[in-house]
Amino acid sequence: MTQPRKIRRYGWIPDQPDQRDHLYAAPSQFLTALPPRADLRRRCPPVYNQGALGSCTANAIGGAIEFDQMKQKLSVFVPSRLFISVGACPEPEWPYNIAKFATKPPVRAYRDAKLDRAVQYSSLVQDLNQMKGCLASGYPFVFGFTVYQSFETQTVARSGHAPMPMWGERPIGGHAVMAVGYDDANEWFLVRNSWGKNWGMNGYFTLPYAYLIQPGLSSDFWTIRLVGK
């Protein structure tokens, strides 16, 4: 059953440019022969549900960290989505109780978060081939996009296919998510949301290529390559 719109929360705020950011470059073997599609859903952890809190950025990053834990064959756990600023402690140490989103976590959470951090990560340029190359090489990327009214329709909630915004459509917020695939035949990216598995395509949806390559609609593309101490 689809959650009512009134509990949707958008918390993504675009970053300011930083010349110190390490830029990602897709491996040349993938750029020269990009496959027509990629789909990392089977390698992803279960879809999260952020509920009524505007914690989409933490949910997107948490999903990327857990993905890398699985890829690196490390101890796998759901990161605490209420405390992910200094690293990732297991969620049981600081559970996802949205009533405590402004409460300081215990000392143990700070200590353990430093044991699981994103130690290698890169910023992707807003280029279609770089995005596809990242996914084709087996890694997702986190990004933010401006949400328009059409994204919250029952049609999108049921089908999982989000359209380009129409002329005159009103923006309603910014949302952080994780791209996990693409399909050249349909010219769309496959994206992991954080609204639970009963929304969209078992928690996933598609966005047109044009949505991600247009600067006014999407930005802040990041890929985590290594997690650890």
Structure in words:
The chain has helices spanning 28-31, 56-71, 107-113, 128-136, 154-159, 209-213; strands spanning 37-39, 117-123, 141-148, 171-183, 188-192, 204-208, 218-228. It is α+β, with helices and mostly antiparallel strands and 229 residues long. The chain has a single domain (21-228), classed as Cysteine proteinases (Cathepsin B, Chain A), CATH 3.90.70.10. Strands 1, 2, 3, 4, 5, 6 and 7 form a seven-stranded antiparallel beta sheet that branches. The radius of gyration is 17 Å and the shape is globular.
Layout of helices and strands:
Layout: H1 28-31, E1 37-39, H2 56-71, H3 107-113, E2 117-123, H4 128-136, E3 141-148, H5 154-159, E4 171-183, E5 188-192, E6 204-208, H6 209-213, E7 218-228
Antiparallel strand pairs: 1-4, 2-7, 3-4, 3-7, 4-5, 5-6
Helix share bin = 10-25%
The CATH class:
Alpha Beta
Let me know the number of strands. Answer: 7
Order of helices and strands: HEHHEHEHEEEHE
Cα end-to-end separation: 40 Å
Rg, nearest Å: 17 Å
**Count of helical stretches:** 6
CATH architecture: Alpha-Beta Complex
Spatial shape: globular
Mean pLDDT, rounded to whole units? 92
Number of domains: 1
- Using the coordinates shown, work out and report the CATH topology: Cathepsin B, Chain A
**Proportion in β-strands:** 15-25%
